[in-house]
Structures are given as structure tokens and as C-alpha cells.
């Protein structure tokens, strides 16, 4: 690879002058550009830098949408934006492009710190925004970071100081502002709120106020959403005073009924269904649309989990997925990726993916539960028919919800067509659900939780004309879920519900050091009252599956019901002691004496050693040595006869054992002799090899039979008389002559020699054999 040539001082000066001239020219184009006069159709027609246009082209973004054409030129001039447009209209690029252009014109670098902050209400939407930014910003030198819940905080904190563009959720951003040392917002240029109406609601109110209080007031603020709020209180919280509205007049017309708020290519419909029949209709709908890609929205995560688990066991013939806010971040990310790439799949989800998420080619959006308001309905159906493509939506309304909710849709000029259910296509699954819940206690527990969560979701709704709590058929609804009866529900007040919603979106790290008072406000907790360590959290952690404390209690109660049938079960009963039945000595003794008297161990210590017993085949206990009765003894014969029989029996046993012992001793002796001879043979061979060396090629001759034990088996007399005190070897050459050697040869031609007794004899024998 060729080395890059270093620029000279003159060349660097010329390069800086060209860049400044280009930036000045770009600024002039921005000031002269009038969106009302110049109707741009492509991104290259807008006053954008070449690096941004090149990144857009490589990411296949060529044509501009209406919201992009109207908002980008105003944003480039530095005005605050309050923008709203239909779902799937390209709002993400409407604020990402001004962010890149702002930092490019300011010559932003990693040493300038954080330049832009983008806040999204959900993790999935923040991840999608980050992915789009990395695609269009490939030719820029800015660093971008994503901070969301479920990720490693320490990993993010170590790198957040070098980030120029930060994208994240409100809770995690506030956590880094409180904890990260290198994160400084004093030089922030732009603040962007994606899905601003969701970020400004009660759930993120305190968190967002804390974030904005740490930002400089001279920043530029951009607010975008499909359903925008124009509350002066909300805008004042963000210091949004001199701002331009883009698309908000259209939203006002939508609310007044003069403009449609959903895509024109979306085919909307509804059906009237009784609450107990909803799951039957949903299963029948999935069975008749097996080659479609659909999203089914439910009101709570408990319902999503229950419907997913039961339908998965009944196998409708299509891939099933589920997504809700109580899942781990890894599972949520994997589900999003798999659903985006799949073509024939059904996703059960809550409203966590109802806003801003761009799923490609969604054929159907099914709303099993009625949304809380029209804005939620618009966001849900907006997952289909995006960027001018075709799409369909279906909402299931109960007779109690139908008239009031359709009236609210008509006020926003949304008129879905009514569909009729073909009875031939309808299929009932109530019996299957009841069978599944009867077999599996885990599914039964999920069904109970799903029932409770739906009833509570209806109870806390503000629009009482649509959601009529008193008219819910609880028993029939419980039976449709497969439950034997409707579980008992403890309802919370509206104050408790608001407090729960506030705590749900609050930072968990702050909640660990705080507690809430009666008004729902967070108070600091004294650390001395109790600090929860990671070990405390580990031991308090519940199982992440459907098993929980409630389920364990159910299994325990079932086990207690079956105790009567278990013959091995022993129930312990504590009996009351009556003083009149106690010994007189025990009544007048001290407490220590009473304790000693009632102690089993202390009482046994005064009675000597315990007596051992044995049990016969009938289970009766007998002493180890039990005396025989006199009558039984006389029946067996006289004492002398029994004595002789006992002696004969024992002698016979001793003889048998003696024979076995002798045989074992003989075998051990023979084995010992064999090992001794083998060792002797090895020593002789080793001595020969040391003296003459081993030559495998020379032939070896053996005297005798070749078996050393046979050759040395005979013993002969000692050497000649007159031997000195230190006896010479009987096998030395001085003591052996030819006549003696001839006398020792037997008829078979084998030399018979005397068994060696000493080491000298063994050496002499070895020498003779070698000669």
C-alpha cells in the first residue's frame, strides 16, 4: 500500500481556503433557498453537502418526501421545528440530515464533544434511527453512539466522552448524564425528539425535564411525530418559543375531519366480535392467511405471552413470534431482525413497536384489542402501507366498543369498512385451550395473568364511553381462555396506576436509591437504611420463565391435597403436657431438672448402654443374644449330645478351612519360587551381556533343557573335605576336573550339577556354562 504523502504548509493552507470557500457557498445556498418557490424532487436539489448527498445515494435514498422537502430547508437555516406527518413518510431523514449538515458546517470533531442529542421513546426506534444514521453518514467523520436499556453501562460510559451524535432512550441518557464523567452537554448544538408526543407524556415527564435542564438554551430543537401535541405547556418545557410548524396544520385538519391521517394506500376494515370469541376469530384468520406477513397488537405483555404460547402448541401452520417490553434486550433485537427478514410470519406484539418502526412489506395489521385512542390506532396501522406500498388493517371491536370508537375515527376522517365473518371459515379453539391449560399448569398461570391484565387495562382507560368496564362478560371471557373460572382481581386506583406508569419509565439506577411517596414523587433514600448488593439481587431474583412464586404456591397446594393418598406421609402432632400426669419429682424440681428429665439423651445416660436388637423376617425385634427356653433346649437332646454335635460341626468346618488355607499357602509358595527363578535368570542374562556384549546375529547354545528351574532342580553333596574356612566355590575350574565332569553326565546327555548356594557358586556356574 502506497504511503500517503505529507502535505506542505502551502498545500494545507490552500486546502483550508477551499473548504472555507465551499462552506461559505453552501451557507449562501441555504439562505437563498425558498421551499415555496423551489419544489425539490431529489436530495441533490436541496442545499446539502456533497458528503451527505453521496451517503444518501449509496443508501438508496434519492427522492424526497413531502415532510422532508418542507422541513429540511427550514432546519438548515437554524429554526426550531415542530413537525408532524403521516406514518411512513420519512420523518427520520427529516431530522438526521439537518443534524449532519449542522455539525459539518461547524467543522465538528471529536474534541468538541457532544454536538447532537436524539431521544426516542423506545429501544427499537432508537436502534432503527442509529442504523439509518450509520448508512447515510459513511462519508462524514462524526462519531455516533447508541445508549439504550439492556446494554452494558460501563462499556457505554467508557466511550461516551468521544461521541458527537448520541441516540438513546430517556432513562439511559439521564443515567449517563448523572454518572458518566466525560459526557458534557455545554456545547450541544441540536436536540431532536422522535415521536415527541410520546416523549412528552406522563411516563417520561420527569426524566425529560431532568435532561432538558442540563442542556444549553441556545440549542436548536426539532420535534417530529405522526400525531403531534401543540400544548403550550409541553413546548415551554423544551424552551420552544420561536419555532416553525411543518405539517402541523395538516394534523389539525385531520383532527377537525378535513383531512385523512392514514396512508391512502392502506385498506382499513373492522369486524364486530364478542369478547369471548376473539381468540377463535384470530386463530381462524391466521389459518386462512398462512402466506401473509402480519402483526397482531394486544393491550398487554401478559396477553402476548399467553396467546403466543398457546397458539404455538396448536401449530396454525405459520411461523409465530412475540415481542413485548418485558423481554430481554437480546431477545427483542433478535425478534426484530428475524421478523424484518421473514416473508410469511405472524408477530404478536404490544404497542412497543407501534411507533416509528419500519418493517418491510407487512401485509396485515390486526388489532385484537381496541387501542386507547385514535392516535394509537394511527400508529398501529402505520406499520403497513409504508412509502406508498399497499397494506391492509383489521380491528376487532366488541359491541360495547363499536359505536363510540367508530365515531372517534370518523372525526379524524377514518372510515374503515365493515367485514362479515364466514361461518364456514370460523373455527372454535375453546376446547383445545381448556385441554392445554388442564395438562400444563404453567399455561394455566399464564391464562390467569392474561385475564387479569386485560380486565385491568379496561378499568384504567380514560374514555369510559368506549371502554365499559361494567359490561365485560368475565365468566365467558375466562372460559374462552380455557380457565375453569374467572380469577379474583384486586383493582388499583387511578392514582396508583399513574404512579406505576411513572415508575415504569424511570431510571432503574435512580429507583434503587429512591422511594416514592403518596403523591408519586421520588424521594431520596438514606443508604444507611439498607444497601442492596449484587448478591442480594441474585438471591431475590425470580425465574425468568413462566414459573413464579404464585405458580409454586399452586403446586404446593396441589401437593397438600394429595397428602391423604400417600401412605408414607407422616404428620407430626404436638401434644400438650398435663401437669397432673407428670411425676411428682418433676413438678417440684427446677427448670434445669425438668429439662434434664424431659431430655431423651439425658435420661438414657443414667440407664447404661443401650441394648441392640435385630429384626426377623416378620419385622419383630429380638436381642442380639437371646436365651433359649428350657423346654426348647430339652427337645433338641441332652447337653452332652448337643455339645458333641457342636464340636463335630466346628471341627468339620475347621478341616475344610484348613485344606483351603494349605492350598492357598502352597500356591503362594510356588508363585514366590517362580518369581525368584525368573529374577535369577534375568540377572544371569544381564551379567553375560555386560561381559561379552549382546549380539543377536550369533547363534546361542543352551546346556540342559533350557529351563533354569529344571536344570537346577537337583541338590548334590558339598565339595571335597579339607576345605578351608572360607569355602571355595564348588563350581570353580580349580576344583573341577575332566573326570568329575564326565561323572556328572547322565544318560540323556544332560550335565547334572549341584544347586548353587552362595553368590560365588552362582558366578562359577555361570562361567562354566559359558565355556
Automatic annotation (TrEMBL):
Subunit (UniProt): Interacts with the U3 and U14 snoRNAs. Associates with pre-ribosomal complexes.
Catalytic reactions on record: ATP + H2O = ADP + phosphate + H(+)
Protein's name according to its UniProt entry: ATP-dependent RNA helicase
Cellular compartments annotated: Nucleus, Nucleolus
Skewed-composition ranges (Acidic residues): 686-699, 752-763
Alphabetical list of PANTHER family matching this protein: RNA HELICASE
Recorded family membership: Belongs to the DEAD box helicase family. DDX10/DBP4 subfamily.
Signal peptide location: none
Gene3D superfamilies: P-loop containing nucleotide triphosphate hydrolases (3.40.50.300)
Motif (Q motif): 41-69
GO annotation, cellular component aspect: small-subunit processome
Amino acid at each position: 500500500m502506497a504511503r500517503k504523502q505529507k502535505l506542505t504548509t502551502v498545500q494545507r493552507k490552500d486546502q483550508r481556503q477551499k473548504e472555507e470557500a465551499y462552506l461559505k457557498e453552501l451557507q449562501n445556498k441555504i439562505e437563498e433557498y425558498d421551499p415555496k418557490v423551489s419544489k425539490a424532487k431529489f436530495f441533490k436539489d436541496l442545499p446539502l453537502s456533497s458528503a451527505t448527498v453521496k451517503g444518501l445515494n449509496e443508501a438508496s435514498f434519492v427522492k424526497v418526501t413531502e415532510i422532508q422537502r418542507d422541513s429540511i430547508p427550514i432546519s438548515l437555516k437554524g429554526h426550531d421545528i415542530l413537525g408532524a406527518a403521516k406514518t411512513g413518510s420519512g420523518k427520520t431523514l427529516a431530522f438526521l440530515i439537518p443534524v449532519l449538515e449542522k455539525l459539518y458546517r461547524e467543522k465538528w470533531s471529536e474534541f468538541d464533544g457532544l454536538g447532537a442529542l436524539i431521544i426516542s421513546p423506545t429501544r427499537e426506534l432508537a436502534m432503527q434511527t442509529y442504523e439509518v444514521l450509520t448508512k447515510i453518514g459513511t462519508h462524514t467523520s462524526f462519531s455516533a453512539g447508541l445508549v439504550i436499556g439492556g446494554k452494558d453501562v460501563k462499556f457505554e460510559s467508557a466511550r461516551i466522552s468521544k461521541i458527537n451524535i448520541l441516540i438513546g432512550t430517556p432513562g439511559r441518557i439521564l443515567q449517563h448524564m448523572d454518572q458518566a464523567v466525560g459526557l458534557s452537554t455545554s456545547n450541544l448544538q441540536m436536540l431532536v425528539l422522535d415521536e415527541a408526543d410520546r416523549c412528552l407524556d406522563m411516563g417520561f415527564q420527569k426524566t425529560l425535564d431532568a435532561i432538558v435542564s442540563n442542556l444549553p438554551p441556545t440549542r436548536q430543537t426539532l420535534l417530529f411525530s405522526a400525531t403531534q401535541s401543540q400544548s403550550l405547556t409541553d413546548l415551554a418545557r423544551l424552551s420552544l418559543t420561536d419555532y416553525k410548524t411543518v405539517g402541523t396544520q395538516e394534523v389539525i385538519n385531520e383532527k377537525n375531519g378535513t383531512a385523512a391521517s392514514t396512508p391512502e394506500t392502506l385498506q382499513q376494515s373492522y369486524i364486530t366480535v364478542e369478547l369471548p370469541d376473539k381468540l377463535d376469530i384470530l386463530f381462524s384468520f391466521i389459518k386462512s392467511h398462512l402466506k401473509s406477513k402480519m402483526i397482531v397488537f394486544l393491550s398487554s405483555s401478559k396477553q402476548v405471552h399467553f396467546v403466543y404460547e398457546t397458539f404455538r402448541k396448536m401449530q396454525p401452520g405459520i411461523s409465530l413470534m412475540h415481542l413485548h417490553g418485558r423481554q430481554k434486550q437480546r431477545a427483542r433485537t433478535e425478534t426484530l431482525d428475524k421478523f424484518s427478514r421473514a416473508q410469511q410470519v405472524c408477530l404478536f406484539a404490544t404497542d412497543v413497536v407501534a411507533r416509528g418502526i419500519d418493517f418491510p412489506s407487512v401485509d396485515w395489521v390486526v388489532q385484537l384489542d381496541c387501542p386507547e385512542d385514535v392516535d394509537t390506532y394511527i400508529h398501529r396501522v402505520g406499520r403497513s402501507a409504508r412509502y406508498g406500498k399497499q397494506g391492509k388493517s383489521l380491528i376487532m371491536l366488541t359491541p360495547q366498543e363499536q359505536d363510540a370508537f367508530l365515531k372517534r375515527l370518523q372525526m379524524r376522517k377514518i372510515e374503515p369498512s365493515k367485514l362479515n365473518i364466514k361461518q364456514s371459515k370460523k373455527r372454535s379453539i375453546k376446547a383445545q385451550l381448556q385441554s392445554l391449560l388442564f395438562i400444563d399448569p404453567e399455561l394455566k398461570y399464564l391464562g390467569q395473568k392474561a385475564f387479569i391484565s386485560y380486565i385491568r387495562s379496561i378499568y384504567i382507560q380514560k374514555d369510559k364511553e368506549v371502554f365499559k368496564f361494567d359490561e365485560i362478560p368475565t365468566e365467558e371471557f375466562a372460559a374462552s381462555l380455557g380457565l375453569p373460572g374467572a380469577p379474583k382481581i384486586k383493582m388499583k386506583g387511578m392514582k396508583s396506576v399513574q404512579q406505576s406508569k411513572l415508575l415504569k419509565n424511570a431510571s432503574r439506577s435512580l429507583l434503587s436509591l429512591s422511594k416514592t411517596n403518596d403523591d408519586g414523587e421520588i424521594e431520596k433514600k438514606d443508604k444507611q437504611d439498607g444497601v442492596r448488593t449484587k448478591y442480594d439481587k441474585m438471591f431475590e431474583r425470580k425465574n425468568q420463565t413462566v414459573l413464579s412464586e404464585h405458580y409454586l404456591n399452586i403446586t404446593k397446594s396441589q401437593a397438600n391435597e394429595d397428602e391423604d393418598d400417600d401412605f408414607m406421609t407422616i404428620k407430626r402432632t404436638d401434644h400438650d403436657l398435663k401437669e397432673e400426669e407428670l411425676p411428682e419429682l418433676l413438678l417440684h424440681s427446677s427448670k434445669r431438672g425438668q429439662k434434664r428429665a424431659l431430655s431423651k439423651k439425658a435420661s438414657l445416660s443414667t440407664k447404661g448402654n443401650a441394648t441392640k436388637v435385630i429384626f426377623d423376617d416378620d419385622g419383630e425385634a429380638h436381642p442380639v443374644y437371646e436365651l433359649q427356653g428350657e423346654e426348647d433346649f430339652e427337645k433338641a437332646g441332652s447337653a452332652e449330645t448337643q455339645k458333641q454335635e457342636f464340636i463335630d460341626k466346628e471341627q468339620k468346618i475347621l478341616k475344610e478351612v484348613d485344606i483351603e488355607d494349605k492350598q492357598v499357602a502352597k500356591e503362594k509358595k510356588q508363585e514366590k519360587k517362580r518369581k525368584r527363578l525368573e529374577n535369577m535368570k534375568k540377572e544371569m542374562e544381564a551379567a553375560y551381556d555386560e561381559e561379552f556384549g549382546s549380539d543377536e546375529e550369533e547363534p546361542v547354545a543352551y546346556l540342559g533343557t533350557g529351563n533354569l528351574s529344571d536344570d537346577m532342580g537337583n541338590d548334590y553333596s558339598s565339595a571335597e573335605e579339607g576345605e578351608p574356612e572360607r569355602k571355595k566355590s564348588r563350581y570353580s575350574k580349580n576344583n573341577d576336573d575332566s573326570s568329575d565332569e564326565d561323572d556328572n553326565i547322565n544318560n540323556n546327555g544332560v550335565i547334572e550339577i549341584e544347586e548353587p548356594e552362595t553368590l560365588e557358586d552362582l558366578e562359577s556356574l555361570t562361567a562354566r556354562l559359558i565355556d
